[in-house]
Design goal:
The protein has about 350 residues and is an alpha/beta fold. It has 12 helices and 9 strands. It starts with about 25 loop residues before the first helix and ends in an 11-residue tail after the last helix.
Length: about 350
């Protein structure tokens, strides 16, 4: 059983590691990434984390120095959320009142150019699948494939905020659940509207939770499952909760079938992600890994892992320019759209 625990990073080494890729220019980094993708022969597995959604307005847990961007952040644990006692009900009030305010920004977030570049990487046949730690659904929004094909190509390691379910398998879309919350809590609706109108929305964490201080959750009404009256929870893996065997096996098989890993925007602090690195590096022969991310990561210094310490977006976009040239000349409209799409909207309050 693997449980998600609050991620921690090991302390930095006393002697800084020598990274041969640390002094590359953007052009050199792009050219290195392009060669890496070509060597993968279409079997590169892409792994992404919170860093790639920051340009879509969703704040990462960690800043460039590896520290939590919100030092007061204390997530609700799985055992607390599903605790049937009154104490559990208090946690559910806290979680869903904050989640009520945190959902609209996640729902409305749009893919940034990097999400589209990764979609283009698949479209060009350079990668087959993306495994993401993000629960924001932005890879799905950028996908050029049918919903069924998108499900085959994008694995949500930690679930998705777009669905809510009970333990008996009754699932409702998050938007529908949001409407029920609105009906039960009209004063929170006014609070949310006023905050939106005055631009004073609380900051949203990547799991859809918000920072809310000096507000009482006591009066917040939390609905149970309309089919069976059980406790509802979002379809995301909470701290202290296990990843399902199905998802775990699919991730294992994806690493096994891949020729190499391209990892973007993550410190690999959660074990579920780090385990894929260990699996790739202990394969015979070891599968090469290229990590493009800013800030320290749990995998820094591992033999067989290369790291480009840059924002992944511009590197991949430039890398694709060369890789896509032949296809663009043939006038592929999907590829053209993927290469021109994406909006950059940094999180509120970040400079
Ligand atoms: Zn139910």
């Amino acid at each position: 059983m693997v449980r998600i625990s609050i991620p921690t990073l090991p302390p930095p080494p006393l002697i800084p590691l020598i990274n041969p890729l640390s002094s590359l220019t953007l052009k050199e980094a792009a050219s290195h990434t392009a060669s890496f993708l070509q060597r993968g022969k279409g079997k590169t597995l892409v792994v992404t984390g919170a860093g790639i959604s920051v340009d879509s307005g969703i704040r990462a847990y960690r800043g460039d120095d590896g520290r939590y961007t919100n030092p007061n952040y204390r997530p609700v644990y799985y055992s607390e959320l599903v605790d049937p006692s009154e104490k559990g009900e208090d946690f559910r009030k806290r979680y869903w009142s904050r989640g009520y305010l945190g959902w609209p920004p996640v729902r409305d977030a749009q893919p940034n150019p990097l999400h589209y570049s990764l979609a283009a990487t698949m479209w060009l046949g350079l990668a087959k699948e993306i495994i993401t730690q993000n629960v924001d659904g932005l890879h799905d929004k950028a996908s050029p494939y049918t919903p069924e094909e998108t499900k085959r190509r994008i694995l949500h390691l930690h679930g998705s905020l777009h669905l809510v379910h009970c333990k008996n398998g009754h699932v409702v879309p998050r938007d529908e659940f949001q409407e029920v919350l609105t009906k039960l809590n009209p004063s929170w609706k006014s609070f949310a509207e006023e905050a939106f109108a005055t631009g004073t929305q609380p900051r949203t964490n990547p799991d859809g939770d918000v920072d809310l201080q000096g507000v009482s959750y006591d009066s917040f009404k939390v609905p149970t499952c309309k089919e069976c009256d059980a406790i509802m929870k979002p379809n995301v893996v909470f701290f202290g909760e296990s990843i399902s065997e199905e998802v775990k096996n699919r991730a294992f098989k994806a690493v096994e079938a891949s020729s190499q890993l391209l990892i973007l925007g993550t410190s690999l602090a959660t074990y579920s992600a780090f385990r894929m690195i260990k699996q790739a590096l202990s394969s015979v022969p070891p599968k090469p890994i290229l990590l493009i991310s800013t800030g320290p990561s749990r995998a820094d210094g591992l033999e067989g892992l290369e790291k480009i310490e840059m924002e992944a977006g511009p590197v991949l976009k430039l890398a694709l320019e060369g890789l896509a040239r032949g296809v663009v000349e043939k006038g592929d409209p999907v590829l053209k759209r993927l290469r021109e799409s994406g909006v950059v909207k940094r999180p509120m309050g970040d400079d």
